[in-house]
């Protein structure tokens, strides 16, 4: 299927940027690290090689939410500990 897309993109005079997308192959409920995908004779990096951020959330090969929860708590505590100079109070 990727080969056919490559042919169609060449016909349209467009190019794929294989460094931008990420691939993830799952077989029988487990991540398969041996499968590679190629477009325009270049390998698409896997999520385990280069994690990707989409809609404010990081995706990596672990695919578990426990690590994301810990990161959210860490960011929240860092944000609360920083003194804010943007807030101005007006006393009338």
Automatic annotation (TrEMBL):
It comes from the Eukaryota. It comes from Elysia crispata (lettuce slug). This is Uncharacterized protein.
